[in-house]
Design goal:
Number of helices: 8
Number of strands: 5
Order of helices and strands: HEEHHHHHHHEEE
Shape: globular
Strand order of the largest sheet: 1-2-3-4-5
Oligomer: single chain
Strand content: 5-15%
Radius of gyration: 28 Å
Length: about 325
């Protein structure tokens, strides 16, 4: 009898231990799920809060830009040496900046809103021909530019006749891109990206924005902006070789971080060549890029807004019309 009772007690002990182990696993899983939800909720809260901070910072930066333009009325077509000022300037030169917005340090950049190539209306052939004029021995890229120009022509013309290397309705349907082409002028910049092979010539930037192309509503006739130039622009539009492009890109990186003038970083002959094809002069359009709008390294939303300057008093009707507003 004692052996039977001992056996029963052993079985009961094993069952209890199994229950305890199972309960421990369940508790551990619940704790893990709670921690995951806490992290997710914290991240979502930080992102939501950063959106409000970014919008508030944007409004303040806009005013500072307008005040800077009124204080320094003449347009500066030469490099700005920040060492000559005992206060900050608010220029569209892509310098890394910070602003204290009610205790939160917001990181942002100001860039020329009229940067990029003009591809709207009938300017796309001129812009693509400018790219073509800088090519030397790059037959593959040259052919792609020709094909792209023909496909844009088919996209914006009013007929369904397919040109050489072009694309019309049937060609887009084969790619499962129905209801294209528009057969009219582009209504927004990113519409260009529906045309195959466009990214081989005009790729998106690191944020996924199509910043190499100017917004359609901006028609100012200025050269592409140097401060926002990418490797592709320097190589294709600037006509620089790999070594020259690397030198300019390195100088731009140092400029954005340390505000060291490009003239101190780039060979004078190379800088002269670059300034013949790119512009460093401000336009009437500005883009503000909010990079980080929350404390520390917490998750943040980013905001890009493009607008036309109207003076420190604001537009006459009191309404700011943004040409671009992208929260991501």
């Amino acid at each position: 009898m004692n052996k039977k009772h001992d056996h029963e007690r052993g079985v009961a002990l094993i069952a209890v231990l199994c229950l305890i182990f199972t309960a421990g696993l369940l508790v551990g899983a619940l704790v893990m799920i709670a921690q995951i939800h806490t992290v997710n909720i914290g991240a979502a809260t930080a992102i939501a809060r950063s959106k409000y901070i970014a919008e508030g910072s944007l409004n303040r930066i806009q005013y500072l830009i307008e005040a800077d333009r009124e204080l320094f009325e003449s347009v500066n077509n030469t490099e700005t040496n920040y060492g000559e000022y005992d206060h900050d300037r608010f220029l569209p030169d892509s310098v890394d900046r910070e602003i204290n917005y009610y205790g939160t340090i917001v990181k942002y950049r100001i860039v020329n809103g009229a940067s990029g190539l003009q591809m709207a209306q009938n300017r796309y052939r001129q812009s693509l021909n400018m790219l073509r004029s800088t090519l030397t021995g790059a037959d593959t890229v040259n052919d792609k530019i020709t094909i792209l120009a023909n496909r844009i022509a088919d996209y914006v013309d009013s007929d369904d006749n397919t040109g050489t290397d072009g694309m019309e309705k049937g060609d887009y349907e084969e790619l499962e891109m129905n209801n294209l082409p528009r057969n009219a002028q582009f209504q927004f910049r990113e519409e260009l990206r529906w045309i195959p092979e466009i990214n081989d010539i005009l790729p998106v930037d690191k944020n996924g924005r199509f910043s190499l192309v100017r917004l359609p509503s901006i028609s100012e006739n200025i050269r592409p902006d140097l401060y926002t130039a990418s490797w592709a622009q320097l190589r294709i539009y600037g006509g620089l070789d790999e070594k020259q492009a690397a030198e300019v890109m390195n100088a731009l990186t140092i400029w954005r971080r340390e505000k060291t003038p490009l003239g101190d970083l780039i060979d004078p002959l190379l800088l002269g060549t670059v300034l013949n094809r790119f512009s460093i002069a401000p336009s009437n359009y500005y883009s503000i890029i909010i990079e980080h709008a929350i404390d520390g390294d917490r998750p943040t939303s980013r905001l890009v807004a493009t607008f036309r300057t109207a003076g420190a008093a604001g537009p006459n009707d009191g309404i700011i019309r943004y040409l671009e507003w992208l929260c991501f």
